[in-house]
Give the backbone structure.
Amino acid sequence: MSRLPFPSQSYREPQLTLLSSLWLQGVALTLTPIQYEFGVSESNVRFTTCALFLGLCIGASFWGIASDIVGRRLAFNCTLFLAGVFGLASGGGPNWIGTCALFSCLGLGVGGNLPVDGATFLEFLPCESGNYLTMLSIFWPVGQLIGSLFAWAYIPFFSCDPKVETCTKENNMGWRYLVLTLGALTFAMFCARFFFFHLYESPKYLLSRGRQDEAVASVHGVAYRNKAKTWLTTEILNEIGGIAETKEEEKLSVVEIIKRFLSKFSMERIGPLFANKRLGFTTVILWFCWATIGMGYPLFNAFLPQYLGNTSSSTYITYRNYAITSVIGVPGSILACYTVEIKYIGRKGTMAISTMITGILLFCFTASTDSNVVLACTCLEAFFQNIMYGVLYAYTPEVFPAPNRGTGTGIASCLNRITGLCAPLVAIYGGSANPTAPIYASGGLILAAFVAMVFLPIETRGRQAI
């Protein structure tokens, strides 16, 4: 089956990366106007981001299990439907607590997109097309750019000035227009998925449920979509996989599926990641990098509009600068696709160099209050940051052995989410004493990840995944 051309199924995957960055940055862009309208302090309004991350964590865990119970296709559509509905609802938040609650519900959908869409994409992707993972990182800054442009169009012109007027819903509609627009885009993505494109159920899921005939039909459907032919039949599949085994799998209950999911985190699955000193060392370093970057990234990026607002003379310039920063970040992901294949640089070199420069630029960000210097540092930081994340995203699954790849990457993602959830708390309580403390902490964490990357023993450039 891996020889079948499946790219027609993968066109939906850019929605995953774009949607995630769209909402992560979209919520960050609403913090200042939400602060003015609901009378929340500059520190406490950062709990808004914490609410979103809480939803992301719960959504990623719940939908990862649910996709094994109800199927990839239903979970695939439900997560985007939830994101679209609660994205639109968030635009009508009645007060700060209510808005945070709606953002948490939004996170349930967006967080579920990450594991479900990723699994669906990889299960339809031919082995020889693994480099698509690096290319997909391009859509992360594209999502940031779309959110930034809409914020620039709405917030400066439809927001109140707390220095000269009382902020009310009527004169502070800019952030609501932004959230409603992003919600409408998300719901349009759902409609496109559900009504205009036919997604076949994952054959891997169907096989795990003992539905051999449906798995074969799905493969034939994808082959037909690609104008290709396949020799696969139910008889051949039974000959390869064994009828007895599939009948046993068909009897799995919901409880047994949950136990099987949790078994991914048992020592039996984690143990092979430490099969030898070299692989064990790599596993520890990668998990450390995902954890430190998971906290360092939102410490700066989730509150960047607030940081820029402290150095800009107007709201218009603040959101203009944010849009410029997002534009500059796009070429970084494109460059990463080429540098990872350069001899003597490869994945490790590209990742380590970009991480080091990102950490240094974070410290430079606080060196001057001049808006032009701050803009230059922010643009460069966005450029190298996208290289860093894009290569890390592709390198991680490449380095783990295939039977335990899901466990290794799953734990890395889990650590990333947990530390990301803690980041707003660090920014709130650390920033109250010193406004630049969260930025210093972010730079320190990123540089710590750089030091760890230097010691990675495995280079995956030009090698087949183990």
About this structure: Residues 1-12, 242-250 have pLDDT under 50 and may be disordered.
